[in-house]
Amino acid sequence: MSAININKNNFQNEIMDSEKTVLLDFWAPWCAPCRMVAPIIEEIASERPDIKVGKINVDEQPELALLLIQERWKNKMKVIIVGGVAGGATAAARIRRLDEHAEITVFERSGYISYANCGLPYYIGDVITDPEELTLQTPESFFKRFRINMKIHHEVISIHPERKTVSVKNLENGEIFEENYDKLILSPGAKPTQPRLPGVGMDKLFTLRTVEDTFRIKEYINKNHPKSAVLAGGGFIGLELAENLRELGMDVTIVQRPKQLMNPFDPDMASMIHNEMRKHGIKLVLGYTVEGFKEKDNGVEVLLKDNPSLQADMVVLAIGVTPDTALAKEAGLELGIKGSIVVNDRMETSVPDIYAAGDAVQVKHYVTGDDALISLAGPANKQGRIIADNICGGDSRYLGSQGSSVIKVFDMTAATTGINETKDLPFSGTIEIQNLKGEQSIGKKNGKCR
User: In this structure, what DSSP letter does residue 311 have?
Assistant: First the structure.
């Protein structure tokens, strides 16, 4: 007994020419093709008494359906994806749209998939109160919609390109197993930069990158009711978290070595952000180097180089992120800036059949043409779609990242794209400048454009 592959183009011919005697009608209420094919199945079955129809509701009998589908599609492409947040989840969904037969498995070491990091501080600040609103999908909803296996609490611990397998550890029970692949997608993201400073690791010192990190910080605040916090770093997460902690009534200080917040902005634009932060009671300690942390008076003492220390009930490290590429390094993939994964414009790595996307990859800056690291969800999602296209037979290219971003700072919205005026850009040609009155000034400039 075997099943016939249902394809609307050769559906009737395949049945009429087949000697197989059982036609399995896979039915799901959400599936438009199922509703279209069902009447055809019944009509042909009525003309062929030797054909028996067995109906399987995919939603009611998912395990049986999955077993039968696996039997039918033994030769289907098998895709393994490492990481199920931005690029990984996007690639998985698009592969399913392009290839209904592919076997897709995503391994995610955390307990959550398909979430936006930029929303995490707003749960801490009670702007978002329902934890389920932090994620766009769950493993269950992803499987129900796309028939993609999302394995949370599963960490890929090694890649074996020579035999096209990965070793996976189930973090819930410690089991280690090996999984083969036809195509492998790496989307491990980046991890919070952890400086090698005295005191890093104490229980009042946090990082914010995952949903679990968010719950950890929120639980600490609810349990201990801290009155003050020091944030080391003034990037996206640092500013958003500072605002939300301030809205909770906490005394908040941002300390960092650079003399301006939000490095991608021009200094004069950053000064407006500084004013907005100070207007709402955020203390800025800019141009100071953190040298370590010590427990003191049931709080944390933040040690500064050549300056008096700062005191707080809790500290959050938000000094940036580092590509999480230990797997790629051990597998022998070519690495670039800060250990990031080198890819071409098809998002292919240096090893055949292995692709990479997101915060872990080195890209070309769209404006300068230089190699760059740009950790943003928008580029990661686009890269995931490009990988899916190419895996499924297309030829999509990633032309580079422009670094477009936007952030809310209390009552202000700040946005940036491209490069700022501190970057020297080689230029030769004509510049046209138009002021607000519409008056034009045209001139030529060779060498550096600033």
Answer: E
